[in-house]
């Protein structure tokens, strides 16, 4: 059974995958802070957010996010359905998607994220291990 990407069930499954990934745990030992992943859509009903509370190699919480989570998140990454599909299926690395303008950092800075490239890669590896459907992507 596949879970709809950025749904609450998908977020919770990602938390399990992240916490079961020893490569993420090792790469993210210095990472401290939460991140909000945001699917931006022309139809507000199609927008989705996922809030991840990440701390030193552990995902302490993962769930559907809300607009109010934007205040709590240290970083916000935003992109359309197609961009997130490319990142979450491993077609495009997250940092490369940012550099190419497919994903935007709407809170935080690229300079702060660059030392955590391997952490980001392992987050994607973990998320990609969760069987997902991608509504809004042709």
Residue share in β-strands:
25-35%
**Helix/strand-derived class?**
alpha/beta
- Tally of individual domains: 1
What's the rounded overall pLDDT mean? 92
Q: Could you state the CATH homologous superfamily?
A: SCP2 sterol-binding domain
The largest sheet is:
5 strands, mixed
Low-pLDDT runs? none
Q: Shape from CA axes?
A: globular
Named at the architecture level, the CATH assignment is 2-Layer Sandwich
Radius of gyration: 13 Å
Helical content, roughly? Answer: 25-40%
The counted number of beta strands is: 7
What's the CATH C level?
A: Alpha Beta
CATH topology: Nonspecific Lipid-transfer Protein, Chain A
Give an overview of the whole structure.
The chain is α/β, with parallel strands linked by helices and 138 residues long. The chain has a single domain, classed as SCP2 sterol-binding domain (Nonspecific Lipid-transfer Protein, Chain A). The protein contains 7 helices and 7 strands; from the N terminus they run βααβββαβααβααβ. It has helices at 8-19, 22-27, 69-72, 81-88, 94-99, 110-113, 117-128; strands at 3-4, 32-39, 48-55, 58-64, 75-79, 103-107, 132-133. The strands form 2 sheets. Strands 4-3-2-5-6 form a 5-stranded mixed sheet. It has a two-stranded parallel sheet with strand order 1-7. Strand 2 (32-39) and strand 3 (48-55) form a beta hairpin. Helix 1 packs across helix 7. The chain is globular. The two termini are 20 Å apart. The relative contact order is 0.23. The mean pLDDT is 92.
């Amino acid at each position: 059974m596949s879970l709809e990407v950025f749904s609450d069930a998908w977020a919770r499954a990602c938390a399990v995958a992240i916490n079961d990934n020893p490569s993420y745990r090792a790469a993210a030992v210095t990472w401290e802070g939460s991140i909000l992943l945001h699917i931006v859509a022309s139809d507000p009903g199609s927008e989705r957010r996922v809030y991840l509370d990440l701390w030193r190699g552990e995902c302490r919480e993962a769930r559907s996010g809300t607009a109010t989570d934007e205040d709590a998140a240290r970083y916000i990454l935003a992109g359309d359905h197609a961009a997130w599909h490319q990142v979450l299926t491993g077609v495009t690395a997250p940092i490369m998607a940012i550099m190419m303008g497919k994903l935007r950092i709407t809170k935080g800075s690229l300079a702060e994220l660059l030392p955590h490239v391997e952490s980001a890669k392992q987050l994607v590896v973990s998320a990609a291990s969760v069987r997902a459907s991608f509504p809004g992507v042709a």
